[in-house]
């Protein structure tokens, strides 16, 4: 299948900045970027429209980045304790995933969505201390120290 040319309306990690014309797979463009308001098809009309709105889009992106940085500063390097049910042998019932981590961080004072929690090695299946990355914006990440303890 042929790649599509799109113009970005906001910074997209590992793809480009506002106003960049990039080539991507059609499914990614049609299913994620365009419906999410992150891109438009790279037609001459859309390119002209984005060029006129570029200053406005950049201001909006700065506001979003500042809000994300504020959230990251509140929670970065803080310890979050998550109590989970354990068996008599001390093993977890199930696992600790993004939903449980997002809920624990929210209780610590910063609202976090599941998709903002990064678990590159998968869910946690044991008690212990972990470092969890939170991805608030293309340029803003935070790390929390998660302590998984039994009830």
In a few lines, what is going on in this structure?
The protein is α+β, with helices and mostly antiparallel strands.
Tell me what the structure shows.
By secondary structure, this protein is an alpha+beta fold. It has 2 domains: 66 residues, Ribosomal Protein L9, domain 1 (3-Layer(aba) Sandwich); 75 residues, Ribosomal protein L9, C-terminal domain (Ribosomal Protein L9, domain 2, Roll), CATH 3.10.430. Helix content is 33%, strand content 27%. The chain is built from 3 helices and 7 strands. The strands form 2 sheets. Strands 4-7-6-5 form a 4-stranded mixed beta sheet. A 3-stranded antiparallel beta sheet has the order 2-1-3. The longest helix is centred in the middle third of the chain and has 32 residues. The radius of gyration is 20 Å and the shape is elongated.
What's the topology here?
Elements: E1 4-8, E2 21-24, H1 26-33, E3 39-41, H2 44-75, E4 79-84, H3 98-107, E5 117-118, E6 128-137, E7 140-150
